[in-house]
Amino acid sequence: MTIPYRLLLLCSLVSTLGLVSILPESKSATATVAGCPIPALSRFQRHKVVRGETLESIAQRYNLIPATLIDMNPTLMDGSVTVGSELQIPPYNGIVVEVPRGQTWRQIAAKYKVRADTLFEINGCQQDPRIVFVPEVNGSPNRPIAASTTPADVEKPDRASISGYPLQQLATIGLAYGWQINPITGEVFFHSGVDLLAAVETPVQAIAPGTVVFANDQGSYGKLVIINHSGRLQSRYAQLDNIEVTVGQKVNKGDLIGTVGTTGKPTSKQPHLHFEMRASSDLGWVAEDPKTYLKQ
Ligand SMILES: [Zn+2]
């Protein structure tokens, strides 16, 4: 391997060899903050091309546009695939960008018109990444979008009916949603939810009707319950002491789902419920300000 990576189409990092060599590095980005997913660069899959497949069919299979696959696999430049060859498959449409010397990932977010918190989370909440995955947002200027392969998602979900409060009594906010300084590590991070101060073992209730889609331990979240609601919304209840629901269970507004705890890696020592609201998007479940949904 003589070239660690090379540049194609301005800023996108595309060499297959290059991507392989970056992957181990990005693993070092440990999620120290509740709500931080595995970095996109660690979520690349490999696909071995079989007979009968085309660039378009492979792209479709992974819900990507062909241009994304070409960016990540320079051997596809001429638009054809070779049976038996291995392709790098990213988790979303987007490009891999090396953060230029003297610049920060925030400047990259601004340049590509991606929400800074989205870029931060997608790259595993790293403080100073040198290489980032920039997701492609509809209408984002980093590449013309092939209209035929982008599903026209015109459905405007009804979200007004989803509101409630996860505790029986109004709680003090320990840490608000948004960019914050971690009181323990001193690092700037994106707080994807709100911390509602409450004593350990305080009952936690569903804010709206829905279906439990996760009820287990989940890294820094600790004991976590995720409920999917109508309107492609999701509520998350983290750092729980006890979980009282199971996956697949239907819940009503106000149903007991668990109790406040200090499991996982809470951002403060004061017991609290870490509560999140997320909305479904092309990039997965994107955090929203819970304030909009919290009504007692
Ligand atoms: Zn929190």
From TrEMBL:
Highest taxon of the lineage: Bacteria
Gene Ontology MF terms in the entry: metalloendopeptidase activity
SUPFAM superfamilies: Duplicated hybrid motif (SSF51261), LysM domain (SSF54106)
InterPro entries the record matches: Cell_wall_metabolism_enzyme (IPR050570), Dup_hybrid_motif (IPR011055), LysM (IPR018392), LysM_dom_sf (IPR036779), M23ase_b-sheet_dom (IPR016047)
PROSITE patterns named in the record: LYSM
Family annotation (Pfam families): LysM, Peptidase_M23
Residues covered by the LysM domain: 45-89
Segments crossing the lipid bilayer: none
The protein's name in its UniProt record: M23 family metallopeptidase
